[in-house]
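Obj.: predict assembly geometry.
Materials: sequence records (below).
Method: joint structure prediction, all chains together.
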Amino acid sequence: MAIIVQKFGGTSVADAEKIRRAAKRVIKAVENGFGVVVVASARGKQTDQLIADALELNPNPPKREMDQLLSTGEQQTVSLFAMALDAMGYDAISFTGSQIRMMTDSAHTMARIKSIGAERIHKQLDKGRIVIVAGFQGIDKDENITTLGRGGSDTTAVALAAALGAEECEIYTDVDGIHTSDPRIFKNAVKMDEISYDEMLELASFGAGVMHPRAIEFGKKYDVKIHVRSSSNETDGTMIIHEVPQMEGVIVSGATVKKDMAKVGLVGVDNVPGNAAKVFAHLAKAKVIVSDIIQTEISDKKANLSFMIGISDLAAAKKAVEQIKDEINCEGIFVRDDIAEVSVVGIGMRTHYGVAEKMFTALAEAKVNIDSITTSEIRISCAVDEDQAEDALKVICAAFELDKPPEQRSTSD
Amino acid sequence: MAIIVQKFGGTSVADAEKIRRAAKRVIKAVENGFGVVVVASARGKQTDQLIADALELNPNPPKREMDQLLSTGEQQTVSLFAMALDAMGYDAISFTGSQIRMMTDSAHTMARIKSIGAERIHKQLDKGRIVIVAGFQGIDKDENITTLGRGGSDTTAVALAAALGAEECEIYTDVDGIHTSDPRIFKNAVKMDEISYDEMLELASFGAGVMHPRAIEFGKKYDVKIHVRSSSNETDGTMIIHEVPQMEGVIVSGATVKKDMAKVGLVGVDNVPGNAAKVFAHLAKAKVIVSDIIQTEISDKKANLSFMIGISDLAAAKKAVEQIKDEINCEGIFVRDDIAEVSVVGIGMRTHYGVAEKMFTALAEAKVNIDSITTSEIRISCAVDEDQAEDALKVICAAFELDKPPEQRSTSD
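Observations (raw structure tokens):
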């Protein structure tokens, strides 16, 4: 029997009516002959409520206890989901992370999956049951409950699909699929039929919020077809798959904007081996996630070093660099908290020239000043003033014709 | 290190303020040198909310899924409780039933404890930690979550105290201890300093709601000292202990009233072996809990059979006896749904005469009609009209001087 994994996020199971709607989606796949494994998140605002309850008792709750607390949200959803299916005449059984031996390391609130006990699920599917698994949670070797952090339920779903050898992992969400850009900003963005894991990783890391990068990494590693689609209609969404030759024909797949960023610069740092390492070791210790590191020499002995962070990490980052400032002979620290990053992504740009030029020209014509530029093999990102960010995204989308499906775009670039 | 188990019910942990108050109670025991294991119930109305959520999706939810759902209530409390202790500077760790291997049978929603893994708790206590255990829940041999039914957290606490060899199991509640009668009805009821397990079992079974009979049975079987006391003051409550010789001097320990009862009578049943068995087998199959069975011969060949039930079981009971009526040649069925039961309990009455007479006289003087009478070795119960029940309890309490501590009562009975 072919297996399909269906993941429903918090908004898709927020109340009884939505759980019933999701259950009907499951039943449809069952009627089509699939063995169905459902992964569900906590209902709507349940997690927020539990976090508020915790903070009322302890401004800095122990992470183990936080995981013990938050994991109840998903446990509630899966039992309710199984009840809904039972009421519709279908045999269903719910499992916690513990019950399916979703083994993780002990990094509470951000644990990594180590192994999954697929046998118990196979056994239930073989009995003709629908299996409902609590997303986001696992246990460590001492049976402590762990959670996987942001995007955890996506990761659970993709990992389960890999462990079960599922045909496909369907991620149900409130949009039709992955779009060429954010439709809230660039109204004419079009849905992509397919996208490669690598492109999706770049898009997700640089502002496209539909899926968490970790789940995509997992899918790439274990070769899981991921289908991102709408929970409110039957339209096909976007398939995230391995790169196929024809993808190279699409030069730019999508464009993103990432807001709420800050930039920290260290001016005139002694340019000796080890200084950069010291800076980033300090930032890691302060749990600051850093992107877009740029270092440039300004003299024989001095260099400037800058990096981007989420604005919520700014206080911690400032503290960390202040502590290291003297040790690396840094002449000054500057901070920008009014910055955003626009990016274009596409595996086609590896073999095409002119993408950077087209992007910079579009920004220049719109009088958007570029603060700094970073690139990967399949991405170009520009830091810009936050209040110009949406305009910047719009002109980039227009320049790369992201309002059209790939085959209708001009190929002059 | 001497261990103490402290159990806090749902009202004692209903909100952050109450959890903090309970945590202070725990800390006090820690400061007194005890290793403390806390057993906590779901917060306030959480369980009711979860039941409502379930019924919205399924009027008859599968019991396994119901247990999976309801067990989250206690899991939330214990993690929050551990966070509260952490905020007060004390090292605490919370456990689910699964995590301490609280093994039960597979009777979902009314499981029985089979064994407890005490090692994990001992290990944590040895590290100087306070251990917080989710009450009411366990797992069966296939890791399915089970719940223990009504009074489940009391049972968890007493069972843990037994497994850990605890000095004492403290049951925190909203009353000062066990009273000679219900103070809401008989205002002058006095708190008992101690009571035997057997008396407490009868009192609990016949209307005293403070503790569930199962927990008391467990305490008796495993020799656990149970201390029922108030969560809002420091006064000693009531110790439930094994019978000691001086207890015999107290003829009647307490009096109870049990309302919302119904009586079902089967008139003119063929008095042949096996007929009573057939009736109660049918009732058991319908999950009706029966008490006070009375059978009396009315002729050589015919007998009347009656029993009491909770009013909520009346519809099921009526249906069950209707089904069996013809098979046992029953001439008629009568039902009373306006009945209550008043009882007096005391191990002293085993060796004293006159208790029954005093009770019946008191009821007669108050013009309370007695519908039927049943007795055990240490209890006499009278079924009375429900609207006379409170008056009946008052006159019985007065007759047995339950407004005074035992040593001040006259010994004329």
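Conclusions so far: Residues 207 and 258 of chain A are 4 Å apart (CA to CA).
To do: check interface contacts against the pulldown list.
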